[in-house]
Automatic annotation (TrEMBL):
Its EC number is 2.7.11.1. GO terms for molecular function: ATP binding; protein serine/threonine kinase activity. It comes from the Eukaryota. Signal peptide: none annotated. InterPro entries: ARM-like, ARM-type_fold. PANTHER family: SERINE/THREONINE PROTEIN KINASE, SERINE_THREONINE KINASE LIKE DOMAIN CONTAINING 1. It comes from Phainopepla nitens (Phainopepla). This is Serine/threonine kinase-like domain-containing protein STKLD1.
Amino acid sequence: EFMQASWDIEEVQARGIQHLASFVKDKSAFPYLLTCTEVITLAMKTHIDALDLQVEGCTLLLEILSQALEQGVVMALDESVASCLLHTVRKHSENEEFLSMLCTLLMMVSASEVAAENLRKVGIIPDLLSILRRFLHNDKISFSCCAVLWSLAVSESNADQAVLESAVPVTSAVLQKHLQDGAVAESACSALWALALQGCLTDSDYEPTAALLLDALRMNPERAVLVKNGCLALASLVRLSETAALTILLDPKGSGVELIKDEYHLHLKEPGVAEALCLLMNEMVQYDEVMLDMRSQKMEKLLSEIKLQFPFS
């Protein structure tokens, strides 16, 4: 009430945020802090030029959201909160350090389907792409922005087709730049999978994207989630184009089929990986030439192994 009574006084808002932050460590205060997110974001929007207030507000929101995720509480932040956050992103789009924190916040917010939809509605995707282009070198920003893109692209609504299509080259550039950083590569693979599912890739994208995804699998063989999502992304590409299937077979860096076998044996206990590999193989055998090649590489043997390993799946 104290903050709401004096929106225009920056010091009141700053002191209010600081005082709310003092309750973060008190578990019994958590349900009350959950109700304060709108007040905090509105204070940030009203005093958009006050960087200290922005940082403190963002830090407090991160604390509240972290606790919510730990406790399994879904915070479906409404459109006004999404709009405030977008406002902050635009105002501080040059401040790399603060953006890194803000993008982490957006990633946590987008974990809720409702909040992700609200971020999409206020038009945050072009801003995310602009941030990625400018700070491609920054692993934290790249990781968070790709995770947000995945959340926004994977939703049912396809209203942003043209905008999502423009995300393909940027996401590919992130993956290319951070191939050896497992966490960022995993996030970028997931985003490419969502973009492929939404039909955002063009004919000229299939071959280079398939080759890039194979590189990600080769560089990070131990990361089960990356392998799973990378294979699902490849399956989506193969469904759309024989070119992608032939790229997997004929990749100059090594046979994609051998890579599939190696990944399966590395993740024997991971049903999600096996399922993604089966889905990829299922898409590949729709092309006669590809199926003949897979036969010659004894893929039936691998399929029999999978069937024995997961008899009840």
